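Researcher: Let's walk through a ligand-bound prediction step by step. First, I give you the protein sequence. Second, the SMILES string for zinc ion. Third, you return the three-dimensional complex as structure tokens. Ready?
Model: Ready.
Researcher: Here are steps one and two:
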Amino acid sequence: MTIKLYDTDPYKTEFDAKVCSCTPIEGGYDVILDQTLFFPEEGGQTCDQGTINDIEVYDVQITDDIIHHYTKEALEGSVHGYIDWAHRYSNMQNHSGEHVISGIVNKLFGFNNSGFHLSETEITTDYDGFLTKEQIQMVEERANQIILENHPIFCEYPENVSDIAYRSKKEIDGAIRIVTIEDVDVCACCAPHVKSTAEIGMIKIVKSMKFKKGVRLFFVCGYKAYQDYVLKHEQSIAISNQLSSPVEEISNNVERILQESYHLKQKIVALKKESIDQKAKNIETKDIQIVFEEDLDKATQQYYFNILNEHANKHVYLFVQIEDGYRFMIGSKEDANLLLNQLRNHFTIRGGGKNHFVQGTILAAKEEILNIIS
Ligand SMILES: [Zn+2]
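Model: Step three, the predicted complex:
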């Protein structure tokens, strides 16, 4: 069994140890020490980062209470290890924050924590019951009050846990480590925690989604919450400046601009239809109608196509320019697929249709298309 120094000294960043074994494995070495400060990947949390004798530890795993440090170089004898403190402390803040959230959810709504994931990029906690937006806001507000109230946090291995009411995600073999947040939560947990809720700094639930029969909350605590605030502050200030709008009003103003843009688009569509109606007055009926247009939405293209179709004895080709080709509608009193296959022999085409009407996109220039169809 490896002595877990992080159990008793989560704030220490350096330690001495003796190498018990160093086994070559594919791409490196599996190093077992008599004691370590490296928290392994366990309980949904990623492992500590750092070095042993200046050699990077790229992974840390635990099996049967033995902690395995994975390195690129071999180690032997007495060694000195360093833990990346910023990474460790961020994990402590976020893990303690999760206990605060889970304690509140359990007390207020009776739901159990059914999953936890803490990595560099994402922190989530799952519950076996669903929470509404208002309930999540209530949990977040209470969590931040608990931070301000500065509740002490204790981690210990009680001799007898049978008298203690604690939360636990699974049955635990052997000694049970109990993490107590005074007056807030009691939970079985193996990870390093901060000494008091004040050190969590801040808890922000940033997203939620239905998960299995309950809910998954995405959250950030401590320095990560500060970084999240900076990112969102910069974004909202940039939008506020672009709109010349106070930050408190940007959502309303964006909504207004989107409405304006929608109405303008509707207006453009109406004007285009009007111009097509004008053109329709001068269309002469002939065997084949071939028309190229620069800018028409699909619905207006269909409208124009129907008019052209009334003025064609045999076929209609209507091409509307798009990024690197044309969006086409082809109609035929005979077989539109035959016309489409004629084009397909020469160009890249997506689309298809029925006997008298086909539509899709074609990658080709106007002159190339005209060479084939006219
Ligand atoms: Zn925990």
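Researcher: And what stands out?
Model: Residues 178 and 188 are 5 Å apart (CA to CA). The mean pLDDT is 96.
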